[in-house]
Amino acid sequence: MIRPILRMGDPRLLQRSLPVERLGTAELRDLLADMRETMIAAHGAGLAAPQIGVLQRVVIFGFEHNDRYPDAEPVPYTEIVNPLLTPIGPELEEDWEGCLSVPGLRGRVPRHARLRYTGFDPQGKRIDREVSGFHARVVQHECDHLDGILYPFRMRDLRLLGYTDVLFPDADVVDE
After folding, report:
1. pLDDT of 8-55, one tens digit each?
2. Which H or E run includes 136?
3. Is 142 a catalytic residue?
4. In the chain, where are the structural domains located?
5. Fewer CB within 10 Å, N side or C side of the chain?
């Protein structure tokens, strides 16, 4: 079922999510199915449970091609529960980000260039990956939602926040 996506200003987006206590449940399976359907309908690169009002540490992300990020390399579809991120090295990269909870806007956000993420798939199998590039950016963005952080909070210069159609007038970028 496609669920409404909360938008910036909703206080639920500012809360810290709780760990999932039990994996492999019907409730978790239903939540993930709704998240995937919602993300696809919104042309998202990822979605965190808090964005649909569920304050649990669950994120999904991945795509072969994404209309909102047409130049981004593919990211494998992943469902991860109780994720933990560990930066690999001090290097940061700054690039443009958008968010389904901040529709129509983009901003330049610094993120760790490389990181390791761990957690569990919905059945309890351990996930352990080292990633870089857009994959690393997406994971960091979605996991920020679990701690009540929206991408504008990470920006160093709010002059680099603007409407997508103004920032990229000639680009073929979809942003709700």
Report:
1. 999 999 999 999 999 999 999 999 999 999 999 999 999 999 999 999
2. helix 133-145
3. yes
4. 11-167
5. N
